[in-house]
UniProtKB/TrEMBL annotation:
Pfam families: Neurochondrin. This is Neurochondrin. It comes from the Eukaryota. It comes from Lactuca virosa. The lineage of its organism: Eukaryota, Viridiplantae, Streptophyta, Embryophyta, Tracheophyta. InterPro entries: Neurochondrin.
């Protein structure tokens, strides 16, 4: 008969032999029978061999527990053989999920700390992934045995897009899904940051399913609420190639036809990167260091903006339907929250684009071409118009509370601060409503007013803007906002930006009060006098003192001391602080710097008109 070579039965007989030499010969034969899809053969080989010999062979290959010279000479061969057969065995889930296999995870991690050939590294990673995925405690044992350190040290050396890289990424995905990312970030921040750099390169260079595995891992790690330490580590790096890789990857995803969830993940990643590298990341180099294909510097900006605009249009439409048209009993609260979260990401990207074009417009040079700039502005106008329509819908349904509404007001305020004349008619219609919008957990519209302050300050430079704020009643919300800002003031000039914006807005309104021709409720302003004068007692910079004094002087011009004393929110102590403030500001007359000269003049002119109606203030100023 023709000799057909050793059979599986011959292999099994050798594996059951009494001498190690027989078992080794059987193992060498077993590598031919343990194919990926031959589960029956793998199980028969495993049952014939048993765990004890295999464990001993692995330890011998690692140089543990054997002093025999012949075994030391064959140590590398034993290691290769044991890891190869272990990886083959673990392709059967019943074997991979056994306690015998999970106990070998620390040993295989130790093997990876040595210099190994590429095939042995691949088999180690295959074993680690299969066991970690199959055994209940696999991921925990992998993590507690230093798995993150091994990933961080090995992944930079793995070939891009290789099967070994894929296994390493799957191990990382498994570990982060089974264990708390908070814990991983705290204990292995440096290692996780190194892994992010490797993932960024894969995301940029690959053009297969592994690209989207990298995208998923990157967006999950960098957008996590626990990401701050990793973000800080990346921000501190002198080599920012990782950010270029991420930009290349984001551009590739957004300019191609991909699934909606993949497009959304790319936007989430872009938003996270800008939290680290700033808005100018959008206009950086877009061809990776490994490619020579130049891409226009502003391509990323337009792709991110246009994709965000599409998401906003879809999400606003979905939310409006869920909130106002769908039957309340069938409303899916979780779906609403998810859409609101995704809307927040898209809003953040649009807001970052607004900041970018604002800063670029102030720079010299043509970083963004005129054509692209026009496209961006046109797109922003359309999107802000959509957002205002969403707010009008909420107003019509009597809704003024919700994080989606607050975020909508924020982005409207951000854009109108740069282009106050945009969407003019819609803004006129909705301003009174926008200053009343509250977040889900808030009990006042303070945040909304703060978001709108830059725009409100801008438009009060013109009579029409002042008339709009007065007629819509928005001035009341601005006064309430200023009172709260002053009462919560920490005393540092750097943090007083919102206070100065609110003060400028009120000052502009009061200066144009007669020209506006709209009645404004003095009771709001009277309370402000008491708060501002008390605040001015403690401020150290002259500009804050003079701003408070000029506003108080203009308010005093429309009332009297007798009216103040009857007001429920104005006390005797308030009148005392008003006396101190006016006297202090009047003393600086003629000594003031050029910056405060206009404010001092407002105080002095006002005093000349109303002094006789305020005997206590007049006495304090004139020293009687």
């Amino acid at each position: 008969m023709e000799n057909q070579g050793p059979s599986l039965d011959d292999c099994l007989k050798l594996l059951k032999g009494e001498r190690d030499e027989q078992r080794l010969a059987g193992l060498l034969l077993a590598t031919k029978f343990c194919k990926n899809d031959d589960v029956d053969s793998i199980l028969r080989v495993y049952n014939a061999l048993g765990n004890t010999f295999l464990d001993r062979l692995l330890r011998t290959g690692m140089g543990k527990g054997s002093t025999s010279k012949s075994r030391q000479d064959n140590q590398d061969a034993y290691l290769q053989l044991s890891v190869t057969i272990l990886a083959a065995f673990c392709r059967v889930s019943n074997i991979a999920s056994s306690d015998d296999m999970v106990k070998k995870i620390p040993l295989i991690l130790e093997v990876l700390s040595k210099e190994l050939g590429a095939s042995l590294v691949e088999e180690c990673f295959e074993f680690l992934y299969l066991v970690s995925a199959a055994h209940t405690d696999g991921s925990r044992i992998f993590y507690e045995s230093g798995g993150m350190t091994v990933l961080a040290s090995q992944m930079p050396n793995l070939p891009d897009g290789s099967h070994t890289m894929e296994l390493a990424m799957k191990l990382l995905q498994l570990t982060t899904s089974k264990l708390s990312l908070d814990t991983i970030t705290k204990e292995y921040c440096s290692e996780l940051s190194s892994v992010v750099i490797v993932l960024a390169k894969q995301f940029a260079l690959l053009h297969n399913a592994l690209k989207f595995e990298a995208l998923h891992l990157l967006s999950m790690i960098l957008s996590s609420i626990y990401a701050a330490p990793v973000q800080e580590t990346l921000r501190a790096m002198s080599n920012l190639t990782w950010s270029t890789y991420l930009r290349v990857g984001v551009v590739a995803v957004l300019q191609n036809r991909v699934a909606p969830d993949q497009r959304l993940e790319a936007l989430i990643l872009a938003e996270s990167v800008m939290c680290i590298a700033g808005e100018r990341w959008l206009i950086g180099q877009t061809n990776s260091p490994d490619t020579q294909d130049p891409i226009p510097a502003d391509r990323c900006t337009l792709l991110v903006l246009e994709s965000s605009r599409v998401e906003i249009a879809v999400l606003l439409n979905d939310l409006a339907y869920l909130k106002y048209e769908k039957i309340k009993d069938s409303l899916d609260a979780e779906s609403v929250l998810l859409k609101q979260r995704n809307l927040g990401i898209a809003f953040s990207l649009v807001e970052k684009t607004i900041k970018l074009i604002s800063s670029v417009a102030e720079d010299e040079g043509n970083i963004i071409s005129d054509t692209m700039f026009t496209k961006i502005i046109t797109g922003l106008n359309e999107t802000v118009g959509l957002i205002l329509e969403y707010l009008r819908d909420a107003k019509d349904h009597g809704q003024h509370k919700g994080n989606d509404l607050l975020a909508s007001v924020r982005i409207v305020g951000s854009y109108l601060a740069e282009t106050p004349g945009a969407c003019n008619e819609k803004v006129r219609e909705l301003l009174g409503y926008m200053v009343l919008v509250e977040g889900e957990e808030e009990h006042s519209s303070f945040s909304s007013v703060c978001f709108l302050l830059p725009m409100l300050c801008q438009i009060t430079m013109e009579i029409d803007g002042c008339r709009l704020i007065a007629s819509s009643g928005a001035y009341k919300a601005v006064v309430e906002c200023l009172i709260r800002l002053v009462e919560e003031d920490g005393g540092t000039v750097e943090e007083n930006g919102p206070i100065f914006l609110a003060c400028d807005t009120i000052l502009n309104l009061l200066l144009k009060r007669e020209e506006i021709g709209v009645h404004m409720d003095d009771s709001y302003f009277i309370r402000l006098v008491g708060v501002l004068s008390s605040w001015a007692e403690d401020v150290v910079d002259l500009s804050s003192t003079m701003m408070a004094a000029s506003i108080c002087s203009l308010i005093l011009d429309s009332t009297s001391e007798a009216v103040l004393e009857c007001h429920p929110h104005f006390t005797c102590n308030n009148l005392t602080t008003v006396c101190h403030l006016i006297r202090k500001s009047m003393k600086s007359y003629g000594k003031d710097s050029e910056a405060e000269a206009d404010l001092v003049q407002i105080v002095v002119s006002g005093y000349s008109r109303w002094a006789d109606r305020y005997p206590r203030v007049k006495a304090a100023v004139e020293g009687r």
